[in-house]
Amino acid sequence: MITARATATFEPVGRSVAAARAFVRDTLQGWGHPELVDDAVVLTSELVTNAVVHAGTAADVLCLRSEDSVRVEVADRYPEREIPVQSGRTIASPDRENGRGLLLCAALADRWGVDYSPTRKHVWFHLDLPQRPVGTRSAGPVLPDALLPVADSRVRVAVVQIDRDGAITSWSEDAEELFGYAPEQVTGKPLGDLAAWPHTPGIGTGLAEALRLSRWEGSYGLRRSDGRVIPVYASHLRVRDAEGEPSTVCLLVREEERAVLQTPQRPAADPGAESRATDPFEVFIGSPAPDDLDGLLQRTVERARDMLDGDAAFLLLATDDETELEVRATTGLPAARQRFARVPVETGASRYGSARMPAVHEDLAAVPGAVPLLEGTGMRSVVTVPLKVEGRLTGSLGVAAESANRYSNEEALRLQFAADRIALAVESARLGELERLRRGSLSFLVEASDLLAGTLDRDQTLALMAQMTVPTLATWCAVYTIADPASEPYLSYVLHEDEDRIDGLKDLLGSIAPPDPVPAPGARLWTAPGDAAHRAALAASARELDHLGSPLSSGIDTALATAGAVAGETVVLPLVARNRVIGMLTLGRPAEDHFRQEILELAEDLSRRAALALDNARLYSERNAISQSLQRSLLPPDLPKIPGVEVDVIYRAAGEGNEVGGDFYDVFPIRENVYGFAIGDVCGTGPEAAAVTGLARHALRLLAREGFGGPAVLERLNTAILDEGARSRFLTLLYGELHPQADGSAVLKVVCAGHPLPLRLRPDGTVTPAAEPQPLLGVMEDLELSEETFTLAPGDVLLCVTDGVTERREGTRMLGDDGLAEALKTCTGLTAGAVGGRILRAVERFAQAPASDDMAILTMRLQEPDPS
């Protein structure tokens, strides 16, 4: 039975793919199924791409939720397209561009298929909902009194209710007794204001995140009214009232009394469970849900510590090749020893020599370096045991104490027995986490590739690189770029998840030498920022002592905060494109956290895509700069000052990024009191036409200044164009010479070779053609042209345009020579610049679509004598 549905239609344009992904993601998250988002987004992306890109039709996306699954349908309007067939099976080949979405459906979906109708084709897939048992009850076995948890004679359970913004709305009597605040003192304030250390040790979930979850259990510290910190164990449950307003109910007890709230574990289902029920480790470790790896690991180390009455415990997981162990959970150890630090497995100096076999170290002072994780922690004795699944090393569990000679082989056997029972659950949860990470990484890289492919702007590419890594992969990010192999790396972009620290981070990184541009793939550690942060912190601390309470204190606090932000682990990944290092991507985390290998591998994948996008943006910018420079060289320099004559030019090249096209103009002095002018149109647009433009403009100047008349200039230019062979193009050209006269008039000699005729506007509004048409250039070898001579009186205007003006179209209508003449009649009394502007507006108003041809408008007006 269908319980919910959502649908949307996406147009056949590239941006629709990203919009469809966002629609499916928002729908599934709104339905409360975030665990299905990654698979559904990847499949939807491929299927919508097939519809809008390959099929070229609109895509209809339908999401349906039933009691046990979610179904997503993608339909296009191209039903006759065939399904790719390989070896008799309806599955696409991975080497083919089309059909890849069906291959992904076969790999990721629980069920999928294709339905045809007379008007469209549907590709659908089902993703089964995870099993969520409701109402399951659990109970612990009967225990001797000595094994029961210890609690005060009066156990107090604080009940605190939090609204959707995290503010306290209810504060019980036990809460007042535990923390010393009356209800009126805390009501309306965020619970986070009372938090002293809001992170559960060894777990990334903080108090703010925990309050947004539907259910959560964990530890954190709250500060009493007298300033003392009370470690508490909390159980959070998110509820909503009759009006639908959500809130969170928090039950809190002292940390040492957490057995009161801690969820009991399900008893073992095998027949021997009852006989082993009195084993303490069975009771305290249990088997938490395998899909919560962090919770499982943290609970394991805490119970292992309690079982052996230790001061600290730790659990490490092996990498896939079993050469290193990664710290995944600790208790009782400094924060710097937590989360994703790595140590080698094999024996040797500073190696973890006890990973593959149970081991007891009675006194670590006698064997320094035997357990690198415990160096400098004050721990003296330790027992470690391996976690193995089917004979393969999957991890290591250890318990340590501050006193020597604390543990014997008996404790090692007890710990090994417990480790054997928990190893399979840990490995299952680890594999589940890796699978979720893999699918999440695939979705992340799809989005990243989409964003990077959508721009060729260098600065925007740099910003996207940083924004995709922070905070998803790192706390802060810096991008260095290298202009050429001989240049030094340059700090181009810096981003921190806390915007207030960006400037300080930029100053800190600017004060140290950039990392070496090593082309070797993979991430490498970079200690320079941490060292610089340490020096800055020492200097700031010294200044703080000298200026305590002075106005400088805020600046010192900023310096200390910046130093703390960079004091953690920093890695550098090369940005390599086309076998050249073009920059470095630098990622940093805070001191208490380490990069895990899966994150580094994802960052490496991202860096490869980002490097290519950045290099493409660089090449585009360089090509664009060269193109614009060359195009500007084809335009004439500033127009000359002609006594008594106003000259104005308006030029518009068709095509994005083009400054010069097939149309050109020129006004230049030939000799004293004689000026040449030209306006022409090369067949076509773009760079090929611009090349003939350059030839024509420079040839005109050279021939005119050699003393050739108009017909001779154009005949020689015609020969030069024909000599270009296959690169030659037709050319229409209006060329003339202007001879200003002492009485304010001007004699013009013009040749119009296949070009739109120049128009003459008299002060009384009369418009007439000022020349006769003649053959265009670049067609015939033996070309004979003639020159026409006429006189412009003061106040007369000569308008010369290219066919981009006269051939402006709107449907079947064209502006034409008559439309241009009508527009020119309205320009009496205007200056040359005003005439050109009014003509341009008339052309633009004639049609709504952007111009598809180049346009040039050359206007000359003889000034009238001053009446005074």
Automatic annotation (TrEMBL):
GO terms for molecular function: phosphatase activity. Coiled coil: none annotated. GO terms for biological process: regulation of DNA-templated transcription. The keyword Hydrolase applies. CDD domains: HATPase_RsbW-like, PAS. InterPro entries: Bact_Sigma-Reg (IPR052016), GAF (IPR003018), GAF-like_dom_sf (IPR029016), HATPase_C_sf (IPR036890), HATPase_dom (IPR003594), PAS (IPR000014), PAS-like_dom_sf (IPR035965), PAS_fold (IPR013767). PROSITE patterns: PAS. Residues 159-189 form the PAS domain. Keywords: Hydrolase. It holds the Pfam family GAF. The keyword Hydrolase applies. This is PAS domain-containing protein.
